[in-house]
Design goal:
Elements lengths: L2 H12 L6 H9 L20 E4 L2 E3 L2 H10 L7 E5 L5 H9 L2 E6 L2 H13 L5 E5 L12 E6 L8 H4 L2 E12 L4 E8 L4 E9 L14
Parallel strand pairs: 3-4, 3-6, 4-5, 6-7
Antiparallel strand pairs: 1-2, 7-8, 8-9
Helix pairs in contact: 1-2, 2-4
The protein binds S-adenosyl-L-homocysteine.
Length: about 210
């Protein structure tokens, strides 16, 4: 299988929905086959989520593109990602920002993702194991925050880690279906846009769901 050709075809199809050229170019540079399980590499450029073990999934490429576009990155931002998972979304973010801090609650996934990102040569990613408190207060505030697991509501403590003028994307809803929200933080208010319906694995922890 020629991954480059398959990657180009996928990104070409995303053009119908994603206008930000920088996001599309970043997705042309990141080899998704590197982030999926070895026996599913042939599915790496299908526009669908895939299992990455431990009950978790690598997000659908269209959703990765949509969430990344919503963050409006200009290569100067410090970005926080909650839910490293495979590390694929992390790599796309690293292509488009100054620094990515990514946190993952399952140590085994965090370690695998870090290994992959190191092998690919990313120098602007800091991968941490999540703490019980949501987010990563130590490096706050962030110009952009992306949550790649579904929350029951927008956690106040996470919004507090977003800089004024910053953007956050987060799926919010029940354990089984959610809406993807983009939140823009202003000094005196937050603006919330509903981007689409979606289905993510659960965000686990304080201010989120209990482990199943
Ligand atoms: N962006 C990832 C998505 C992985 S699925 C990818 O495309 O590969 C979501 C991930 O969020 C899972 O790996 C899960 O373990 C993690 N997660 C769930 N709750 C979390 C929390 N409170 N803090 C950090 N990571 C969390």
């Amino acid at each position: 299988m020629n991954y480059e050709t398959a990657r180009s075809a996928l990104v070409n199809n995303l053009k119908a929905h994603i206008g930000d050229e920088h996001v599309l170019e970043a997705m042309l540079r990141v080899p998704r086959e590197f982030f999926v399980s070895p026996d599913e590499k042939h599915l790496a450029y299908e526009d669908r989520p895939l299992s990455i073990g431990m009950g978790q999934t690598i997000s659908q490429p269209y959703i990765v593109a949509l969430m990344t576009e919503a963050l409006e990155l200009s290569s100067r931002e410090k970005v926080l990602e909650i839910g490293t998972g495979s590390g694929y979304q992390t790599a796309v973010l690293a292509e488009l920002s100054k620094l990515v801090i990514t946190v993952e609650r399952i140590p085994e996934l965090a370690r695998q993702a870090k290994d992959r990102l190191d092998v690919l040569g990313y120098k602007n990613i800091i991968a941490e194991i999540a703490e019980p408190e949501i987010g990563w207060q130590a490096a706050a505030p962030y110009e952009a925050i992306i949550v790649t697991a579904a929350a029951p509501y927008i956690p106040e403590k996470l919004l507090a880690q977003l800089a004024v003028g910053g953007r956050m994307v987060i799926p919010v809803g029940s354990r089984y279906e959610q809406n993807l929200y983009k939140v823009i933080k202003y000094a005196d208010r937050n603006e919330i846009h509903n981007l689409c319906g979606c289905r993510f694995v659960s965000l686990i922890g304080k201010d989120a769901w209990d482990e199943e």
